[in-house]
Design goal:
Elements: H1 3-7, H2 14-22, E1 26-31, E2 34-39, E3 51-53, E4 56-58, E5 65-66, H3 70-77, E6 82-87, E7 91-98, E8 101-106, H4 113-118, H5 125-131, E9 135-142, E10 161-169, H6 178-187, E11 195-199, H7 204-217, E12 221-226, E13 234-237, H8 239-249, H9 258-276, H10 281-303, E14 309-316, H11 320-331, E15 336-344, E16 347-355, H12 357-367
Helix pairs in contact: 8-9, 8-10, 10-12
């Protein structure tokens, strides 16, 4: 089947599709012999992150609305019961079988070679896709040893884990209903984000207790999923998640939009006001530490003429996927070097260093007394 024969099923005119390809709103890609288009800008009903394959459309995973006030957010959103799950701190993927190959797509519609290499550690992939052709398993890779996200759940001490949270079907933009989804998860022993069960608006005190326990254990937050299709999926994060986000991003403060930090400070203040009712002195110290210390330490590195970097270890099942990952990082314009590569047991262990040249150069200019206008 030609790619446009797939695209026209979404109501896209051929001229619109051709224009999107010419403007690089739809980018042709190939991985392991599978050709596909990655949607980089909304085209009609095809949102950013959608993947077009010869076997059908893999719609982008929808953005989830965030609430900053738990009680009022829930009361405004729901009149029917809803499910609550842990929000796992990792990176979002969609797993599909295309032309007989299992591929793991990132939210941006790239095939991630690392995730594709490792997914067989967590799912009985052939059985699942034999039994349910066209299935898309949506989930989170999370752990300290991953290529994208420094933060991770406290219960993944090394390497990575996989946690499914949704199911979709090729050519369908909506998710499989929660009850049906849970049955599939359990039948195929698919690891999932922690499930807390079904709640209603009257159970807000129970939700607050869950959030408090997640915050105290170092977890990110919760996701609320409706049983009534017209209602929204919502997410709500803990105070600790806000502080950890700031801490891991503050080293690169010179490269980040200020909104990244202000949004998290506002989330933290809203959480404290609702959940704790008053500001405790230790919170001032925590915020100052996560905001100021990382950039101060990078200034000290720049004084010593040390290029700022972030190191991450990846484990691969197949050696060929190491080179694919290297090519993927280059395509994504990540500055890095491979520090080491060796075989340990069944896995190749590869240490990468992501080079933060822009931050280093900006700090160097300031240290040399350069002027700037702000």
């Amino acid at each position: 089947m030609q790619m446009y024969d797939v695209v026209k099923q979404a109501g896209i005119a051929e001229s619109t599709w051709q224009g999107a390809v010419e403007n690089h709103d739809a980018v042709s890609e190939e991985f392991d012999g599978v050709r596909f288009f990655r949607i980089t800008k909304k085209i009609g009903t095809l949102g950013k992150g959608t993947v077009i394959t010869e076997e059908g459309i893999i719609f982008g995973f929808p953005s989830i609305a965030r609430i900053l006030h738990l009680e009022n957010g829930v009361r405004n959103a729901y009149t029917h019961p809803f499910y609550v799950e842990e929000k796992v701190d990792g990176y979002n993927v969609r797993i599909v079988r295309i032309q007989g190959r299992i591929l793991v797509f990132s939210r941006g519609a790239y095939v991630c070679p690392f995730s594709t290499d490792r997914i067989a550690d967590f799912l009985e992939i052939e059985k699942i896709f034999d039994d349910i052709p066209g299935l898309i398993v949506c989930g989170e890779f999370a752990g300290p040893d991953n290529p994208y996200n420094i933060e991770h759940p406290p219960y993944v001490k090394e390497d990575v884990g996989f946690f499914a949270f949704d199911l979709m079907m090729i050519n369908q933009s909506h998710n499989i209903p929660v009850d049906e989804r849970y049955k599939i998860f359990d039948h195929y022993r698919i690891p999932t984000a922690k499930r807390f069960g079904q709640f209603s608006v009257s159970d807000v005190s129970g939700l607050k207790k869950i959030v408090k326990e997640l915050d105290e254990s170092g977890c990110e937050g919760i996701v609320m999923k409706p049983t009534y299709p017209a209602e929204k999926t919502l997410k709500y994060v803990t105070l600790g998640s806000c502080l950890r986000d700031i801490n891991v991003t503050a080293p690169l403060m010179t490269e980040m939009a200020s909104e990244f930090f202000t949004h998290r400070i506002i989330r933290a203040a809203m959480f404290i006001h609702e959940q704790m009712q008053e500001l405790q002195p230790e919170v001032f110290s925590q915020l100052g530490k996560v905001l100021l210390r990382p950039i101060y330490e990078n200034i000290a590195k720049a004084v010593r003429n040390e290029v700022i970097d972030e190191k991450f270890l990846l484990r691969f099942r197949e050696e060929r996927n190491i080179q694919r990952m290297i090519e993927h990082l280059r395509k994504c314009k990540v500055k890095f070097e491979v520090i080491s590569k060796n075989k340990r047991g069944n896995y190749w262990h590869v240490m990468f260093a992501r080079k933060c040249y822009a931050t280093y150069e900006i700090l160097q200019k300031h240290l040399q007394g350069a002027t700037h206008v702000d």
